[in-house]
Amino acid sequence: MYHDSDSTLETGNIVSGGGRNISLGDYTEEWRAHRRLVHSALHRCCQQSLHGVIERQALHLRKVLMDYQETAVDLSEDFTVAASNVITTLAFGKEYDKTTPELQELHSCLNDIVALWGSSWISALDSFPLLRRPQQPGSTGLWPSCCTDQRHRELLLFKNLKHDIYTSCRLCLTSFFNVGQVQANVYEEIRTVLEGRYPKYSDRHRLPVLSSLINEMLRLRPVAPLAIPHRAIRDSSIAGYFIPKNTVIIPNLFGAHHDPAVWSEPYSFKPERFLEGGGGSTRLLMPFGGGARLCLGETVAKIELFLFTAYLLRDFQFVLPQSEGSLPDLRGVASVVLKVKAYKVIARPRP
Fold this sequence. Notes:
Its cofactor is heme b. This is Steroid 21-hydroxylase. It is a peripheral membrane protein. By secondary structure, this protein is mainly α. The protein has a single domain, classed as CATH 1.10.630.10. The protein contains 11 helices and 7 strands. A hairpin with a 2-residue loop joins strand 3 and strand 4. The radius of gyration is 21 Å and the shape is globular. The termini are far apart.
């Protein structure tokens, strides 16, 4: 928590354009109206076309994996393109090939943003005012040089949803190799319950093994270790701690998901905890944050993660090549988002 007499975090103020954007803007009536508008538009989109858009990208990803013909490859770029195309289709009505220069530029810029905002000196700007200096005309400040205008910046913030899906899919794939029968169990459930057809999001309650796998992955490795900053709008207290008005509070999602008072063996990957009688509760999960600043893309992310995982496990068995000397690392690399270390995998089509 931070308490600032100027009632702002320096980095948040710069990134939000003085508290004006929907990600880190001040909690005002204008902000609430802006958020309601975006939330309503996304909800309408989800009802009308989202499922079909994700299905098309999942089937395209299936074709890409088939074309590799059981060659050992790093699938990170393919996951990135599939996740990005869901967003660009919904927002702009267009898809990109992974060789498209525009898409490559956007991905490069987004990666620069994640690396920049995840660096230790960003926190130092908020903690030590002497390090701050006035913005110079034409300076991009905390934005990489590729971000040249506000529209470009808002687009890149929206495309952070891509990191949610890409990272979650990669983490799910990584988990397959760390738990022996997880792939076989999910495949058998899909084959038996759905009698060979592709899953729909409405099937999630009929597929508890698949759902428990996804829930455990989101618990063990939430995409962002920390949630979007919140601000106390009045004096308050939590668990006996006094919190003055204007205190900036940054929820620790990783800590909440690894609290031994709530989760048994919190650092172990145990999807069965979310099955009936397993003791885990989805009500205690908060991988997309909470409160007024709950991630706007939560619904999109959940549907996309479910369908991508279901389609891939229905059609492929994923195995490690002999060149991979050890299991993929589930720990990831901490930053603004939790990144997965690169590794290669073989997608073996099921008979």
